Cytochrome (Ubi)quinol oxidase subunit III (Paenibacillus foliorum), 206 residues
Amino acid sequence: MSVHHEVGGALPPHAETATLEGKNKVMGFWLFLGGECVLFGMLFASFIALRNQVPDGPTGQEIFQLSIVALSTFILLTSSLTSVFGTMALHRGNLKMLNFWMIITVLLGLGFLGLEIYEFVHYVHEGHVFSKSAFATSFYTLVGFHGAHVAFGILWISLLIISSFKKGLTVVTAPKYYVAGLYWHFIDVVWVFIFTVVYLLGKVGP
């Protein structure tokens, strides 16, 4: 019988790996992230190779708005901090605070996606469409792929929060929260590289 735990001490220390199943989930997820690193590495390599292939379309130097991107970066990095607070609440066995911080994380993620959509719409109006140039195609593929990961993370965490009202916080559900937090940190780290390689270097120019 599962028990809803919301107070410190109700769960064993590091409940996410307290069982063999939990350890396997965490280990499997690290392997999954290794595969994701390879995928993003290929997209970064393609973008770097094609970033100057702009025969007749706008360049990143012409269209990138660093103020919007900087705000997006601040929002996403803040969401990484709130997910850390969520993990700390997980280790205390406090389901209420865990969900509170994860809800904040989801809201910040939605804010990031909203700004990214606004950014893409602006670029399209400037003639920077997907098929305009090799640069445009590689840009939308890389940044859009990351955005899809953010959207998936928002859905994943939201479903965990909803299911927790029925299942509570146990050694079975704790690993799910933990790996979701790892996933969120991963997409935050990837964004730091995107911000640097795509936007900062793009604004500087060739």
About this structure: The chain has a mean pLDDT of 87. The chain has six helices and no strands. Residues 134-167 form the longest helix (34 residues).
